[in-house]
Amino acid sequence: MTQLQFNNALLGLQDKLLYYALSLTSDQEKAQDLLQETFLKALTYRDKFTQNTNFKAWIYTIMKNTFINNYRRNVKAKNTFDGSNNDFHLKFSKDKIYPSPDSFFSSKEILKNIHALEDEYKVPFTMFLDGYKYKEIAEHLNLPLGTVKSRIFFTRKKLEKALKDYAN
């Protein structure tokens, strides 16, 4: 496919891609941005397109993956730690209403209860709090993935029970 054919095929899909971007983002401006980013990636990685394959599917996949990556990046940015010594206070966006600070558990009390757990629960839960993914924890501890998930779940339940006196 020549550069001219590639560009014409890309421009021919513009309206359909914009409609697809609108279905993903539900916002006109974000859809335009997604379309522009998709075009940029398609042009940048033109050499990755394999001749005699489905061009339309290739472009739609670029758009879908771009949307997913942007969504994950935005979620991660909203849930970053504030860098203080107290890792339990997350940086929340200011436009939402959250419980007052006196309704949150004391971090010392939470840590005390975590450290009181048996190692089989404490180690996976602590790793989870440190940002490890379930799969990474399972590989590191040489445990099945389901076991790691259930131990973290049961640890949460144990902590809820131990800290119920602090609940509102």
UniProtKB/TrEMBL annotation:
Q: Which GO terms describe its molecular function?
A: DNA binding; sigma factor activity
Say which domain of life the source belongs to: Bacteria
One GO term under biological process is: DNA-templated transcription initiation
Q: Does the keyword Manganese apply?
A: no
Q: Is the Transcription keyword given for this protein?
A: yes
Stored NCBIfam families? sigma70-ECF
Q: What is this protein called?
A: RNA polymerase sigma factor
